[in-house]
Amino acid sequence: MASIFSRIIAGEIPCYRVAEDENNFAFLDINPMAPGHTLVVPKHETDYIFDLSDEQYLSLQLFAKRVAKALGEAVPCKRVASAVLGMEVPHAHIHLVPINSEADIDFHKKHSLEPARMAEIAKAIAEKYENS
Ligand code: 5GP
Fold first, then answer.
1. pLDDT beyond 90 at 52
2. Active-site residues: which are they?
């Protein structure tokens, strides 16, 4: 069965899309640690990130770098943190989280934002990405 992220990429499940290229897709985490928390995933479904081929892994990381730069411009923060867990969804993904301190990274603290706010943030990151 396709992962929930494959179904998002296929458009079967809605998301707040941020960016995509030939091999990768980025969208807002539904329960963000901070406004702008973005997930970056390879379109080719693979559970464990370190099982990706070298080419897929490099492609994903380079895409994540461009998305992170756009995120940092769209959402004021000191740093964009990058983290890989994969304990919940068996489809490789990188969390990009805008932070101002170490305490801002806490995978036990998830929030939900109003749909209009999520759409606004996704649009702001997407515009920065497109102009990069
Ligand atoms: P992990 O697998 O790295 O432990 O966490 C998976 C992440 O995916 C979580 O932060 C969770 O909030 C997010 N997530 C799970 N299901 C969905 C979904 O259907 N849509 C979106 N946008 N994010 C999801």
1. yes
2. 93
